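ok so I'm stuck.
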Amino acid sequence: MSNLIRKVWESVSNRSNSTKHTSISSISSNFSSNLNYSTSSSETLFDQIYMCSSSTGEFDRTPIDVFMQIVKLLQPHEVARLAAVCKLWRVIVSDNKLWMYYLQNQVVPWDSIFFSEVNLRSGFPLQTSSQMQSFMHIYGLRAQVPGAIIIDGGSGYCKFGWSKFDSPSGRSATFLEFGNIESPMYSRLRHFYATIYNRMQVKSSMQPIVVSVPLCQYDDTEAAKAARRQLKEAIHSALFGMNVPAVCAVSQATLALFAAKRTSGIVVNIGFHQTTVVPVLNGKIMHKVGVEAMGVGALKLTGYLREQMQQRNLHFDSLYTVRSLKENLCYVALDYEAELRKDTEASYEVAAAGWFTLAKERFQTGEILFQPRIAGMRAMGLHQAVALCIDHCHDAELTADEGWFKTVVLAGGTACLPGVAERLERELHDLLTPSIADGIKVIPPPYGADSAWYGAKLISNLSTFPNSWCITKKEFRSKARRNLER
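replied:
not stuck anymore, here's the structure
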């Protein structure tokens, strides 16, 4: 069959009377303006073929569905060349369904591609496209995207890698890479980014970069705004000082929301030191509504499990053993009181440490997210912090559609504990008034602890990247100069 397809390609190429090899990018740019295809177009491929007066030669007698299956056996760049043969070939190979097929067979899931191309193409401020361009044109542009370095520096661990890879290529403890905590922010950031580039063994001047901006200064005061602006300026200055060609800096909460294929909602990030509840509308954090924070994070859960193990005289050599047990044995009970009456004993083998058996510790560890007092902490429960944020969003009346804050997206490694999403959704329905609670949905972390990294990956593979999302060194300096003149 492959030999037959090759012969077909040679026959078609000879008929074109052209020895010029047209690239997919030039084909898509030349014909997308003339072929304004969209998924909602009422004109079918059959209608378009019927209107053409040209011929496909020996293939005229082949049923169109069979013919399209044959075309799919070719590579996308070969199919793109066929558009130069004649008008009929151009119509056939520009069919949206054909290029949807090619997009669906890429590493990135099709629903993520569709979401990003519809909602994220414009950059900030987000503007949803009312009509999709031809998928052939989108495929061609995505093929030209240079890719980017992605660095998601969390409070505990940093994830980094190349945007064309399936997952982060490396991880490290952020505090070990951040340099002397007493040195200026610029110096610490530069040391941090330089360390990551060295680990990746790439030159900083070669590719754009997408970095996550950690949440800081949650208030809507002028001082908090200035602090957030100062952090972003320090990030840009450090990277441009390393000759990075273009920088895209986006909040971790926004990136985690994008990974869940949402542009609006409430992001609950259970971080290393604390948990933040962040309202996001059209990709922008609503500081004026209020970001809630509670002092319970992954480190507290690990510490509480360690205390319980010590009380039971379970001996371990390091916190790595405790963290492994937390990640592999612990869960959150849907009904805590009912779970206390059950036999929940289970065992797990930690590499180089042996077997460990836990019982009630398995669900009591995660319970401190909802009842911090059992670990001796005076703080709101997770459900109370989220409910408070939802109430604030409802009272703010930012849009006519109140559905934007009824999607709650979890982020962070601890949010991957089994039962967190189900328990939070149940607690919210019990805590909120029926009119507000109706329609609330809690979504587990779509990519676990790497959600923000994958959100950045969506941006860096967009057909409009880097132009719509990145700022260059020249643009940054020009903006800084204008700010000084005010």
